[in-house]
Amino acid sequence: MKNTFIVIAIIAVIFLGFFILKNNQKNNTANASLLQDTEITVYKSPTCGCCGNYVSYLKDQGAKVMIQETEKMNEIKSRYKIPMLLESCHTAIIGDYAVEGHIPAEAIRKLLDEKPTIAGISLPEMPAGSPGMGGTKFAPFRIHNITSDGKDGGIFTEL
């Protein structure tokens, strides 16, 4: 009886793993075109692991990513008018827009499709469960507008 339970449990774990793997492959395939051929420059510290994870995420979404490693992230944030309260660990540039932090591809796609007259968008800090970060997402991500004069312009979108 005990051996039968163990065999059933092993089969269930294998089936569940297969289901999760297939579901992730479908999601990655569906999202791969969200940023297809979008050119993105990511400014990051050479020692930041989550920034590297975010770069991998962008590439998985189809983006063409160029990495600029720098120890002078404060200068980058100042150049692109990122308000201190909206800062995160890395800053990406897509065309004329700054994309600050671990922003999901869906929000970047919305930015590129709608082309609002703003300087960029930000997901402040480094929320758990966001692209490139570990952990579990507990609340919607509030992605802010960055105005052309470097202020928080309110919520751009929630995901």
CATH topology tier name of the largest domain:
Glutaredoxin
β-strand amount: 15-25%
- State the end-to-end distance: 47 Å
Shape: globular
Largest sheet: 7 strands, mixed
- Sequence of secondary-structure elements: HEHEHEEHEEE
Count the domains.
2
Uncertain ranges: 15-29
Strand order of the largest sheet: 2-1-3-4-5-6-7
> In total, how many beta strands?
7
Q: Helix fraction?
A: 25-40%
**CATH architecture assignment of the largest domain:** 3-Layer(aba) Sandwich
* Class inferred from helices and paired strands: alpha/beta
Mean of residue pLDDT values: 87
Just give the CATH class of the largest domain: Alpha Beta
**Helical run tally:** 4
CATH superfamily heading of the largest domain? Glutaredoxin
Q: Short description, anyone?
A:
The protein is of the alpha/beta class and 159 residues long. It has four helices and seven strands, in the order αβαβαββαβββ. It is globular and about 70 Å long.
Textual characterization of the structure:
With 159 residues, the chain is of the alpha/beta class. The protein folds into 2 domains: 1-31; 34-158, Glutaredoxin. The chain has 4 helices and 7 strands. Strands 2-1-3-4-5-6-7 form a 7-stranded mixed beta sheet, sandwiched between helices. It is globular.
Looking at this protein, list some descriptive labels.
globular, 159 residues, seven-stranded mixed beta sheet, 4 helices, alpha/beta, Glutaredoxin
